[in-house]
């Protein structure tokens, strides 16, 4: 029997049509994948079911009966639980409190029943105990957790709802492979219990590993639903792209020859919190990849090089000269750029116009006080077009854009005044396939023009397709370097897991 049926759902925000015609059906005992480009309408469809968005038209049918979902509380009462792509945790509350936040057990109606809270939360914490990593416990405040650990808490929070219908919107974007594997084990168990699960992901390998059916949404409309066993990745991608033409194919990375080119960045025995004895060189025109399981020191090294974190050992030279960034502002002045995949924390200034979000680095590097808006728009136009950024006007607030287009704004701000070294910290996390294709086409172009690029990606396929060399991290150290024909999925997995 169909658990959930959505017919003709429509939602507009002013002149922006977020969802034109959303059709979707979900059955008990299945994982139904929902896929589409950022801004295609899939998250809006899920938010309609979760009660956080009210549709302008359409019908929601639950267990054969039409329902009106008045809000999140009504959705929970109907047996629907959701994991949000943008985390909805209370930073100063503990892990246990966040897991049960929607319904904290109370004593006398006033005070939290700590014993019941701990007992109930412990069940969900135990599911991930051996993959959550150091510093993760029931009484740890969420603000002290890493990004992957915060995401695990959000997953536990959704599981704790014990809802018959569960919606997971990009739940694995910050997780490492061991964490993803554990999560998938749990999903398979829940499916066996008859739960109905919606799973949104941009990772094609995950979709085909966990899904039973897949529904594709394009430009606000449902365009296809298929059994996973009867389709393939190329078909799904063609359905996503439609008549927009073929995606730019990921070019095979050229053989790197850093010894024949001018060295842009050299790092010798760098050490700090989360990493030790890190040494490498990046030549101008080279893309150096950081691989390995998530949270093995890759991001910490990049943030230290950008002055956003400290290092207490080793040395760095930039274009042959000693370099140590005391702060991000210092790094910017030296021509070093940093792009984080956590755009909500390190990227966009929500509520402010696109123009203000794309030009702050230009102000810093050139020490500009006052400037005409028209001149700024001219400066921003080239980078925005190079990344194929979609927006109505540059004066619109950045939160009017999809996640993928917000990330393009974050990247474009560094291209008005070209840096010498570009540090990319999992830059495609949570963005769609088309946006990824646009981004990597530009990255290869920037390398060809002589920029030195360091790319950390939690997606192995991105590294294998775009990096000239790959340094595999494990437990804060580089365990192997992969060059040329060594850059295979097997070698990458072997190096990442052998010491883990």
From TrEMBL:
UniProt keyword annotations, A-Z: ATP-binding, Cell membrane, Membrane, Nucleotide-binding, Repeat, Sugar transport, Translocase, Transport
InterPro entries: AAA+_ATPase, ABC_carbohydrate_import_ATPase, ABC_transporter-like_ATP-bd, ABC_transporter-like_CS, P-loop_NTPase
Signal peptide region: none
Pfam family, one: ABC_tran
GO MF annotations, alphabetized: ATP binding; ATP hydrolysis activity
Positions of the ABC transporter domain: 4-244, 258-500
Top-rank lineage group of the source organism: Bacteria
PANTHER family the record matches: CARBOHYDRATE TRANSPORT ATP-BINDING PROTEIN MG119-RELATED, D-ALLOSE IMPORT ATP-BINDING PROTEIN ALSA-RELATED
Family stated for the protein in its record: Belongs to the ABC transporter superfamily.
Record's protein name: Sugar ABC transporter ATP-binding protein
Organism of derivation: Neoaquamicrobium microcysteis
């Amino acid at each position: 029997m169909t658990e959930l049926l959505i017919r003709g759902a429509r939602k507009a925000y002013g002149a922006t049509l977020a969802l034109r015609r959303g059709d979707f059906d979900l059955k008990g005992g299945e994982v139904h994948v929902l896929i589409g480009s950022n801004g295609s309408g899939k998250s809006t469809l899920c938010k309609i079911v979760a009660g956080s968005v009210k549709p302008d038209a359409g019908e929601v049918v639950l267990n054969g009966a039409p329902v009106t979902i008045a809000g999140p509380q009504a959705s929970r009462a109907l047996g629907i639980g959701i994991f949000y792509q943008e985390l909805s945790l209370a930073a100063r509350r503990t892990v246990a409190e966040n897991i049960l936040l929607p319904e904290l057990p109370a004593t006398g109606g006033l005070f939290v029943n700590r014993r019941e809270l701990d007992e109930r939360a412990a069940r969900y914490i135990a599911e991930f105990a051996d993959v959550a990593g150091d510093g993760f416990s029931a009484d740890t405040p969420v603000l002290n957790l890493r990004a992957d650990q915060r995401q695990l808490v959000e997953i536990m929070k959704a599981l704790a709802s014990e809802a018959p219908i569960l919606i997971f919107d990009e739940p694995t974007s910050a997780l490492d492979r061991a964490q993803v594997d554990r999560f998938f084990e749990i999903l398979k168990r829940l499916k066996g219990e008859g739960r109905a699960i919606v799973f949104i992901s941009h990772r094609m390998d995950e979709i085909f590993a966990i899904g039973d059916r897949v529904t594709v949404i394009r430009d606000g409309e449902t365009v296809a639903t298929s059994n996973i066993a009867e389709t393939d990745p190329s078909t799904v991608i063609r359905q996503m792209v439609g008549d927009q033409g073929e995606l730019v194919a990921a070019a095979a990375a050229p053989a790197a020859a850093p010894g024949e080119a001018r060295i842009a960045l050299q790092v010798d025995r760098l050490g700090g919190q989360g990493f030790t004895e890190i040494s490498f060189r990046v030549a101008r025109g080279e893309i150096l990849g950081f691989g390995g399981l998530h949270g093995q020191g890759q991001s910490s090294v990049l943030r230290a090089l950008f002055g956003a974190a400290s290092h207490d050992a080793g040395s760095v030279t930039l274009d042959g000269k000693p370099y140590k960034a005391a702060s991000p502002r210092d790094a910017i002045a030296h021509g070093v750029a940093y792009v984080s995949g956590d755009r909500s924390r390190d990227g966009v200034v929500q509520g402010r116009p696109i123009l203000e979000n794309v030009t702050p680095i230009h102000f810093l590097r050139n020490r500009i006080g006052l400037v005409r808006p028209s001149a700024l728009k001219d400066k921003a136009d080239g980078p925005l077009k190079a990344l194929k950024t979609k927006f109505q006007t540059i004066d619109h607030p950045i939160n009017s854009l999809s996640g993928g287009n917000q990330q393009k704004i974050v990247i474009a701000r560094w291209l008005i005044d070209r840096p010498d070294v570009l540090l990319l910290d999992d830059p495609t996390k949570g963005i769609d396939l088309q946006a990824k294709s646009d981004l990597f086409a530009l990255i290869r172009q920037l390398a060809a023009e002589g920029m030195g690029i360091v790319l950390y990606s939690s997606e192995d396929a991105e590294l294998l397709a775009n990096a000239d060399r790959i340094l595999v991290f494990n437990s804060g150290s580089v365990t192997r370097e992969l060059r040329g024909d060594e850059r295979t999925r097997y070698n990458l997995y072997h190096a990442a897991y052998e010491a883990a």
